[in-house]
Amino acid sequence: MEYVGFMGGSSMVELGSSSDMVNFFTFLYGKISDCESKEILDRLYKRYIRQNELEKISFLVKEIRNDFLTDSEMYFMKYLDGIDTCIESAKLFYSSWGIYQPLKIGITDVPYCIDDKNRPLEQYDALGPHDPPFWLR
User: Fold this and answer.
1) Distance CA 64, CA 82 (A)
2) Assessment of whether the complete model's pTM goes beyond 0.90
3) What is the DSSP string of 64-110?
4) What number of other Cβ atoms are within 10 A of residue 6's Cβ?
5) 38 half-sphere exposure, CB direction, 13 A CA radius
6) Which of 11, 29, 41, 48 is most exposed, with the fewest beta carbons within 10 Å of its own?
């Protein structure tokens, strides 16, 4: 079984299977109602978060974290923590090296994580509306 997680900056946070990640996004979509939040989640699910979107996703994670979570939803706290870790790593990497390594979902198993870490952003941008994300292939 391949494991997936979040990547950003120099960090990679392994969280579980691809079906676990799909369940996490089902949970997230159930917690939001506005179009801007849905759009940012769609970008994270399928592509990557642009540098100018980091504050938006960070705010969204804080809103969800501050929401009253049921016991079964507490399982997803590690996913929210993983996003936070990779946001901070992406910011630190940029401030240290002047290079933005985006927040995205990727396969965390070796050697596949290397491919996902090094995949050009143009490949993500070229995904069509019906193409599956790379981490689900």
Assistant:
1) 14
2) yes
3) HHHS---TTGGGGHHHHHHHHHHHHHHHHHHHHHS----BEEEE-ST
4) 26
5) 6
6) 29
Task: Indicate the SS3 state at residue 13.
Answer: strand
Which single residue is written with the structure tokens 């965390």? 108
Biggest distance spanned by C-alpha atoms of the chain: 41
Tokens 């759009």 belong to 39
List, for residues 65-113, the tens digit of each pLDDT value: 888 778 888 999 999 999 999 999 999 999 999 999 999 999 999 888 9
The number of angstroms, rounded, from the C-alpha of 100 to the middle of its chain's C-alpha atoms is 15
Find tokens 């996902």 and name the residue.
Answer: 116
pLDDT at 1: 72
- DSSP assigned state of 10: T
| Residue 18 · residue 2 · CB < 8 Å | yes
